[in-house]
Specification:
The protein has helices spanning 5-13, 16-22, 31-47, 64-71, 83-96, 131-140, 161-170, 179-188, 209-223; strands at 54-58, 75-80, 101-104, 116-122, 142-153, 195-197, 230-236. The protein has 242 residues and is α/β, with parallel strands linked by helices.
């Protein structure tokens, strides 16, 4: 499979040293990922998916999201472009005695399979230059009425010094999105009007400055955008009036 330059950079940047380090941890990122996972859980509750529902985890990386979904009682397959990520995810699944499944796949060209009830794209779509192609590929793998859950950086990611540094040093695509743009792309891929969710604040210590900062960030993310706060959207395939 011939890869674009940025995709090849993703594969090559997963060095043995980095993977060995990540293999010692259930996931990377500290407390913030627990806050973000609480948002995923809230979206799944809103979707009212039954136990045993078939889910896809697109761009699963080292597999912690796939493993958490499986622990929630779903039947989950994780896909990632990077073979080393899939090897790490399978090692974690073996360590956890988890039935989660993992396959190497480009999210722009997902392999055929049984129609799924839902798909999660957690912080992965922004590494693609063809988000509509990705969304169409996911739609083709969902049953009519199946849910898509998206977590992606806002347009502030486009001007983020950290994102620019990552792009320069690793060659990855680093992009941000607007709600309007994602809604347009979802509609073009055959999804209904999305429901928007908001993640809670990070844990904090102290009632003074820390509380005030968290309050300001929470309000700002609700009415505008804030650095580090993701866009969270959930939409159903083929239901225009969702």
């Amino acid at each position: 499979m011939a890869l674009d330059t940025h995709k090849r950079a993703e594969v090559e940047s997963r060095t043995p040293e980095l993977l060995a380090y990540e293999a010692t941890k259930p996931f990377m990122g500290g407390a913030v990922h627990f806050v973000e996972w609480a948002t995923v859980a809230a979206m799944l509750e809103a979707a009212a998916l039954p136990r045993g529902a078939r889910l896809l985890d697109i761009g699963c990386g080292g597999g912690w999201t796939t493993l958490f979904l499986t622990e929630m009682g779903y039947s989950v397959t994780g896909y990632d472009l990077v073979g080393a990520n899939i090897e790490l995810a399978r090692e974690r699944a073996k360590r956890w005695s988890s039935p989660a499944r993992f396959e190497v796949a480009d999210m722009e060209e997902l392999p055929p399979g049984e129609p799924a009830d839902a798909a999660l794209v957690f912080d992965a779509l922004h590494h693609s230059t063809r988000e509509r192609t990705v969304l169409q590929a996911i739609a083709s793998r969902l049953r009519p009425g199946g849910w898509l859950l998206l977590c992606e950086p806002t347009w502030l990611h486009n001007v983020s010094p950290g994102a620019h540094a990552t792009s320069r040093s690793l060659g990855w695509v680093e992009r941000g999105f607007t709600v309007r743009g994602l809604r347009r792309d979802l509609r073009a891929a055959g999804f209904g009007r999305p429901r928007r969710f908001f993640q809670p604040t990070r844990p904090y210590e102290g009632r003074g400055r820390a509380f005030t900062r968290q309050l300001v960030e929470l309000v700002a993310a609700n009415v505008f955008v804030m650095p580090r706060a993701h866009l969270w959207l959930m939409a159903q395939r083929g239901l225009r009036d969702a």
